[in-house]
Amino acid sequence: MKPLHFDQAVHNIRERDPRFETEAYTFLSEALNTTVSTITESKQPNRHVTAQELLFGFRDLALKEYGPMAITLLEEWGLNKTADIGDMVFQLIGEGMFGKQDSDTIEDFHDVFDFQDAFTRPYLPRSQKSS
After folding, report:
1. Which of 60, 74, 108, 123 has its CA 20 to 30 A from that of 68?
2. What distance in Å separates the CA atoms of residue 17 and residue 96, rounded to the nearest whole number?
3. φ and ψ at 19, to 5 degrees?
4. Model-level pTM greater than 0.85?
5. What is the dihedral of CA 71, 77, 81, 87, to 10 degrees?
6. Rounded CA gap, 48 and 64, in Å?
7. Phi/psi class of residue 114: alpha, beta or left (left: φ > 0; alpha: ψ in -120 to 50)?
C-alpha cells in the first residue's frame, strides 16, 4: 500500500472533521520538525517527542513566526486550546503521518497551558504580566 501524501491525509481528515484549517496541520507538522531538530541538537537523537515537548515547541514556533498575531491566527485556524492540537496529532496518527508510542494518549495534550495566556502574555506591558 502506497503511503499517503501529507496534503492528501489532511484532506481526508478535513472531509471527516473540518474543525481545523489546513494551515493548522501544516504548521503542526513544521512545529514537530522544529521540535525534533531541537531535541537532536541537544544530543538526544531518535528520541520520542512527548506531547508536552511538542506543545511547547508549537507555542515557541508560533510566537517566533507570528508574534502578537499568533493567537488571532490560531483562532482563525480553529485552535483554542492544547487539546485541539492533540486532536490534530491523533488525526494525523490515524492517517499514518505521525507515529506514536503505546503510552501516548490524547489526554497528554489536555490543559498543558492556557492558549490566551501563552500567546498574549509575552506581549503585555511589564506592569500587566505579573497580574
Report:
1. 108
2. 17
3. -60, -35
4. yes
5. -150
6. 24
7. beta
